[in-house]
Design goal:
A: 278 residues; alpha/beta; 6-stranded mixed beta sheet; 36% helix; 22% strand; B: 428 residues; ABC transporter involved in vitamin B12 uptake, BtuC; two-stranded antiparallel sheet; transmembrane helix (chain B); membrane (chain B)
Chain lengths: 278, 428
């Protein structure tokens, strides 16, 4: 019996090591390949590539109209690409709707928080996906409250009580509830569209902590933001889009802000003209 | 403090309204020299207001969902005349008449629900049109005549529970109902304690349970005595039984079912609800349809009480129902309100009417007083909102409500959630 159990644990260890080994060449949980999207004559995305690994925060930056939101919407199923491929865990998939994205493990927190202020935190977290006592029974209020508590605790978010109406929460706490909402379906990929827009300094820091928790939970996170300082502090990799094309990929820890801004703005080093060289 | 909250439960408005109701009853009882709390008078209050209270139950859901229904009086009237005529002229049995009436209510509700939910016309406009349409239909169908209804329907609107069995000094049906009610509240309290313990929260102190049960049981006992000890042949009114059943059913639907929660979600933030996968159209449709079915029931109960259906039945009922809902704590902007609160709001209006009448105050002054009460009740609500005070009790609790869920650096292994679970269950 004991040896049996030992074997079993060893097998588990083995598996863990193998996945660990795979980490170097591991498969991205989300891979976007040569995706193109046009709106009439406007080319929003042209041959864009994007990889997101489990436990990685990828920041998507670019000027207004660079195609960040279009790419996020393609990943979350709101828009469909004209050409190119989206692969989830290596499998080519068609994401036809936000519901299909949910089923594939892709959740999105949109810029405008979709919360009902009159409902409690727990009610918001499970809104539209309420748990029932039995197949056609009433809601299982106690279980929804406990699960909400657990999710929020995993996120290490301090919310007064899961029974408090969202109306009573701060903007940062609301963002946390909006993120917690998406975790009820146990996604693999989370798309955060401008999560720190309109937040105070302290609240922004709270949300960035939250993103780090999500990474620690092993999710692949796509973070869209305008704030380079925020992104550099929390992202692993920064992907720049410019005019709908990939315009560079930077290691967030080492890249200089000027380089990233140059990529966003499309600036190239111009040779100094001879007349200036006196 | 926790325990204090556990004793009272609920929000400040309900809490406040219960006290206002009790205070009103006592004040009027004293002022009229003991005429309010007599068996005949309380039976009259229930019989004479059950239809408005039935409407208030439907209306609170409509208002929570962010709409309003101005057509309920007309719908009640048209259903009343159809039921009365069908029974008299077609010779259908009384029970089939009731089924027919409810079916007509459902069809009217589907009509209004269609315009509100699927075409997107505001409920105010749709039901304003319905108010004229169905008032006209009542007078067209009935040729503005008064049509009597049979005794069975009258029993529904003005009858009393029957007497049976040994003589106990009280009406035995009422006594049985009272005992059932006591058993139900004790059972609910026991279950509340059990689930609080099972889910690992702090257990509820015994005195809390006793303090909560004591007054409730006392009130039920007093009501049982009051309703059961009237003159022979009277007891708890049948319309009161209908009302109690509706309150239980709709209380459950609004707090425990997904449909009920979606009504609150739609009223709170329509866009958020739809992004979350709530079917807004279906919810709006059901709310409007349900209101008309309840209006049909109210119409049937009313023609029973007045023994006949007439061309001016149900005028201004919509306003009484809406007033009851707002006095009962619903918010004009939608998303807030409770079934039990609306019932209490309706009873406040009913007692006010009754008490002033017993004191010999004319209907002119009564109207003015009722208007001021409505204004004061909603002003209290708005004032609290402006001040950012969710409720009196919430205010008292504010200091200890912080960080009930430890979200600190200790992470997931930080031990059980203290307090909040028990609070949760205790509050229900």
């Amino acid at each position: 019996m004991t040896t049996h159990q030992g074997d079993w644990t060893m097998a588990l260890d083995e598996e863990a090591r193998m996945t660990g080994e795979n980490a170097g060449t591991r498969q991205p949980v989300l891979a976007v390949r040569q995706v193109t999207k046009r709106f009439g004559a406007v080319e929003a995305l042209i041959g864009v590539d994007l990889d997101v690994h489990a436990g990685e925060v990828v920041a998507l930056v670019g000027d207004n109209g660079a195609g960040k939101s279009t790419l996020a919407k393609i990943v979350s199923g709101v828009l469909q690409p004209d050409s190119g491929q989206v692969r989830i865990a290596g499998e080519p998939v068609t994401i036809g709707s936000p519901a299909a994205a949910h089923a594939l493990g892709v959740s999105t927190v949109f810029q405008d928080l979709a919360l009902c202020e009159n409902l409690s935190v727990a009610a918001n977290i499970f809104l539209g996906r309420e748990l029932r006592v039995s197949a056609s029974g009433p809601m299982d209020l106690a279980r929804m409250e406990l699960e909400s508590t657990k999710i929020l605790r995993d996120l290490t978010v301090g919310v007064p009580s899961v029974l408090a109406p969202v109306r009573d929460l701060s903007a940062g706490q609301r963002q946390a509830v909006a993120i917690a909402r998406t975790l009820t379906t146990r996604p693999r990929i989370l798309v955060l569209d401008e999560p720190t827009a309109a937040l105070s300094v302290v609240q922004t820091a709270e949300v960035l902590m939250l993103v780090e928790r999500l990474r620690a939970m092993g999710l692949g996170v796509i973070l869209i933001s305008h704030n380079l300082a925020d992104l550099r502090s929390v992202a692993d990799r920064i992907e720049v889009l410019r005019h709908g094309r990939n315009a560079g990929s930077f290691d967030a820890a080492t890249a200089a802000p000027e380089e990233i801004i140059a990529a966003i703005a499309g600036a190239t080093r111009v040779a100094m003209p001879s007349w200036a060289r006196r | 403090m926790t325990s204090l909250k556990e004793v009272f439960g609920g929000g400040a408005r309900q809490f406040g309204m219960v006290f206002a109701l009790v205070a009103l009853i006592i004040v009027f009882h004293v002022a009229t020299g003991g005429k309010v709390l007599t068996p005949t008078n309380v039976q009259n209050i229930i019989n004479g207001n059950s239809y408005v209270l039935i409407l208030a139950i439907g209306m609170v859901l409509v208002i929570i969902a962010g709409h309003i229904d101005l057509s309920v009086g007309s719908v009640a009237a048209v259903v009343g005349i159809i039921v009365a005529l069908a029974i008299r002229d077609w010779g259908i049995p009384w029970w089939l008449g009731i089924v027919l009436g409810l079916a007509v209510g459902a069809v009217i509700g589907a009509w209004q629900g269609f315009w509100v939910a699927y075409v997107g016309i505001p409920g105010f406009i749709t039901t304003l049109a319905g108010m004229m349409l169905f008032r006209g239909a009542n007078q067209y169908i009935g040729k503005s005549n008064t049509v009597p209804v049979p005794a069975e329907i009258q029993f529904l609107g003005a009858g009393y529970l029957p007497e049976w069995g040994p003589s106990t000094g009280l009406n035995n049906s009422t006594l049985l109902l009272g005992l059932l009610a006591v058993a139900a509240v004790v059972h609910a309290e026991v279950r509340r304690r059990q689930s609080a313990q099972r889910l690992g929260g702090e257990s509820i102190a015994p005195w809390v349970s006793i303090a909560r049960l004591g007054p409730l049981v006392a009130v039920i006992a007093a009501a049982t005595f009051l309703f059961g000890s009237g003159r022979v042949g009277t007891s708890f009114p049948v319309s009161g039984v209908i009302l109690v059943v509706l309150v239980l059913v709709y209380g459950f639907v609004s707090t425990r079912t997904i449909t009920g929660r979606h009504v609150y979600a739609v009223g709170g933030n329509k866009i958020a609800a739809s992004l979350s996968g709530v079917n807004i159209r279906r919810t709006n449709f059901l709310v409007m349809m349900n209101m008309s079915i309840l209006a049909a029931l109210a119409g049937i109960v009313f023609v029973g009480r007045s023994t006949a259906s007439g061309p001016f039945d149900g005028t201004m009922w919509e306003l009484d129902a809406i007033a009851a809902v707002f006095i009962g704590g619903a918010a004009v902007s939608g998303g807030v309100g409770t079934v039990i609160g609306s019932l209490i709001g309706g009873l406040v209006m009913a007692v006010l009417n009754n008490g002033l009448q017993l004191m010999g105050v004319g209907s002119d002054s009564t109207q003015m007083i009722k208007g001021l009460v409505l204004l004061a009740a909603v002003a209290f609500d708005v004032y609290n909102k402006v001040q950012g005070k969710p409720s009196i009790i919430g205010l008292l609790m504010r200091s200890r409500r912080q960080s009930e869920i430890p979200g600190g650096p200790d992470g997931p292994e930080a031990g059980p959630v203290k307090g909040s679970k028990a609070d949760t269950l205790a509050r229900r």
